Amino acid sequence: MGDIKENKMGTMPIRKLLLSMSWPSILSMTIQALYNIVDSIFVSYTGEDGLTALTLIFPIQMLMISVGVGTAVGVNSLIARRLGARRFSDANEAASCGFMLSFVNWAVFALVGILFSHKFMTVFSKNETIIEAGASYLRIVLIISVFLFVDITAEKMLQATGNMVTPMLAALVGQIINVILDPILIFGLLGAPKLGVPGAAVATVIGQCGEAVWISYILFKKDHDIKITFGGHPFRKQIIKDIYAVGAPSMIMQSIASVMQLGMNMILILLSPTAVAVMGVYGRLQSFAFMPCFGLNQGLMPIIGYNFGARDRHRIVSALKEGYKISFMIMGCALLIFQLFPHQLMTMFNASPNMYAIGIPALRTISWCFLPAAFGIVCGGFFGATAHGFISLWGSMLRQLVGILPLAFIFAKAGGIQMVWWAFPLAEIIGLVYMTIMIRRVYRREIKVMEKPVND
C-alpha cells in the first residue's frame, strides 16, 4: 500500500506528476475564488451596509484561515518528508497530532467569537445595522469553525500522501452547498427564513460541514499511507515543534496580508473612499490569478518534500522548473486579462463612474505584480516543503510591510491616487530579488550536496 504512493512521487515523470497532483487543487481553489465573488454579489443586494460589514470582518476570517492553513501546511510538510524517508510510523504520529491540533485551534476561535464579535464591530462603526450584521456573521463563522479546521487539516494530510482528487471533490461539495444556500438563506427563498447577512454565514458553515464530513469519511474509512489514532500522546512536544517550524511562518505570512490590507485601507481612505472599494474589487478579482498558483503549490510541495526526504536532487530541481513554467503561464494569462478587459471586470461589481475612473487604471497598474509574484509563490512552496518556512516569512514581510505599505504611503503623498498602485509591482520586484538570493543559498547548501546528480 505505502510503496505504490511512494513510487508515484519518487518515479513518475515530473511534469505528469505535477499536473496530476495539482489540477484538483487548482480547480477547487478556482471554485473558491468564484465563490468569494458570488457571495459578495449576493450580500451586496442586502444593501451597502451588509457589504461593509463583511469587509470589516474579513481580516478576522483571514486570521482564522491563516491559523488553520498554517497548521495544516506544517502537518503536510512533516508527513511528506517522513514518508519520503520511509518513516511510516512517524508519519502516522504527525497526522494524529495535526488532527488533534485542529480542535485546539477551533476552541480558541470559538471563544473569540463568543466574547469579542460585537466588541470588534463597535471599534470600526457606530452604525447599528453594520454592527449587528457583522457581529452576527462573525459569531456564527467563529463558533462553528470546527468544520473549517477539520477540513483544512484533512485536506493537507491527504495531499501529503499524493491524493489530490479527494480534497478537490470535498471542496467542490462544500462550495456547491454554499452557493446554493446563499440566496435561499439570505433572501428567504423556497420557504426558508429571510436571514439577510447572517444567512450567508449559515450557508458558509453548512458548506464547511459538508466538506468536513466528506473528507473525514475518506480519511478514516479508506486505505492511505497514514493512519490517525487517538490514543497515546498525540501532543508530543517535538512533533508540535516540527509542525510549526514550517506552519508558523505560513500562518504569519497569511496574517501579514491582513495587516497589509488594513494599512492600505487607511492610506486609501484619505485619498478617496471609492479607492477603498476599488481595492476590495481588486482583492476579489486577483484571487482568480493567485488561487490557481496556490493550487499548483499544493501539488508541488509534497513532491518536493518527498524527494527532499529521499535526497533526490534531480527530481527536486525538475519539479521547481516545471512549477515555474506553469505558474508563469497562469499569471501571464491573468496579466493579459487585467490589461485588456479592466472595464468589463469592474462592470461585474456594478461600478459607478467614479469607480471606473479609479479602478481601470488601478487594475492595469497593480496586475504588473503578477509575473514576479509567480516566481515568489513557487519559491515559497519550495521553502515550505524543505522546512525553510521562515525564509518565506521574511520574504512576505519584506514585500507587504517593508515594501507595499511604505511605498504606497510615499506614492500617495507624491503622486496621489493613480501613483499609489505602483507600490504593488515594485514591492514584488523587491521580493523577487530576495527570493532569488535565498533559493540559490539553500540550493548550494542543501540540494547541491545530495548524492543523486542533476541530469539537466
Calculate Rg over CA atoms.
22 Å
Number of domains: 1
Kindly report the average pLDDT value.
Answer: 83
Structural class: mainly alpha
Low-confidence stretches: 1-5
Q: Count of helical segments?
A: 17
Strand content is under 5%
- Secondary structure: helix percent: over 70%
Question: Main beta sheet: strand number and arrangement?
Answer: none
- Global shape: globular
Distance between the termini: 32 Å
Q: What is the element string, with H for helices and E for strands?
A: HHHHHHHHHHHHHHHHH
Short description:
The chain is mainly α and 456 residues long. It has helices at residues 2-11, 14-44, 48-84, 88-124, 128-143, 146-160, 165-187, 197-221, 237-271, 273-309, 313-340, 342-347, 353-366, 370-385, 389-415, 417-420, 423-447.
Description:
By secondary structure, this protein is mostly helical. The protein has one domain. 85% of the residues lie in helices and 0% in strands. The N terminus is likely disordered.
